[in-house]
Amino acid sequence: MKKFISNKYILFGLGIVLFILLWWVISLFFDINKMVVPSPLDTTVRMFELLRDPYTFKCLGITLLRVLIGFGISFAVAFILGVLAGNSKIFAGLLKPTMVVIKSIPTATVVFLFVIMVSPKDAPILVTTLISFPILFEAVTSGIANVDKETLEASKVDGAGYLKRNIFIKIPLSLPYIGVGVLASFSLSFKVEIMAEVITGNTDAGLGNVIRATQGADPTDMVTIFGYSFIAVILVLIISITADVIKDKLKRIS
């Protein structure tokens, strides 16, 4: 029984139940005609109504596409720089202040900056790229730097050069580190993308944009705003659970 209760997936499920109960209790005090904090039931009913609308899936698909574009750019740059930093402590030290600055900049400030630099439609993609970059960079750097030294020494004896050591030894052995970094940053990227869409308020389709449009059309329609937000929450939960399962498998492999 104790083992059953201590299972992290059981605890995760119980945590969701407690969250919904807390949400329900709060809604009892603030659900003024569904204008402040709609109840979980009202939100769920509206969510299923929204899911019957093809436009909801169009918005969700466009948001996911933007996340994948921004995340892909971030991963490509982080991978190249991370491999270099993992092989050179000097290079890693030079980039460290930049990583600290990127992680410290308020996300809203970055959104406004990119809105000025590019179009409001493209700004969320760049925000996703910037926010996920430090996590991916550190994952790649740690993975490369923590490869077993004896394995590397043996490869040098066999005559493996810099490129061969990285391509055939360091990168493959660092995949568990990189995988954990990718999984940890993707759900964050999804949330940042939606937030950036809400702030930019451009007219193109997207989950954040439709939340902003709903609020602009009727600020009292919180049940619809919660319904769209609940779709995003469930998707992030699915991503988080999937990431957790994959991380466990990667740890066993490593």
Structural overview:
The structure is a single chain. By secondary structure, the chain is mainly alpha-helical. It has one domain (about 40-254): MetI-like fold (Orthogonal Bundle). It is about 85% helix and about 0% strand. It has twelve helices and no strands. The longest helix has about 35 residues, at about 55-85. It is elongated. It starts with a helix and ends with a helix.
What's the arrangement of secondary structure elements?
Blueprint: H1 2-6, H2 8-30, H3 40-51, H4 54-87, H5 89-104, H6 107-117, H7 123-145, H8 149-157, H9 162-173, H10 175-200, H11 207-217, H12 222-253
Helix pairs in contact: 3-12, 4-5, 4-7, 4-10, 4-11, 5-7, 6-7, 6-10, 7-10, 10-11, 10-12, 11-12
Topology, number of strands: 0
What is the fold named in CATH at topology level?
MetI-like fold
Question: How many structural domains in the coordinates?
Answer: 1
Q: Sheet bearing the most strands, described?
A: none
CATH architecture: Orthogonal Bundle
User: Secondary-structure element sequence?
Assistant: HHHHHHHHHHHH
CATH superfamily: MetI-like
Rg over alpha carbons: 22 Å
Strand content: under 5%
Shape: elongated
Notable features of this structure?
84% helix; mainly alpha; MetI-like fold; single chain; 254 residues; elongated
Gist of the model:
The chain has 254 residues and is an all-alpha fold.
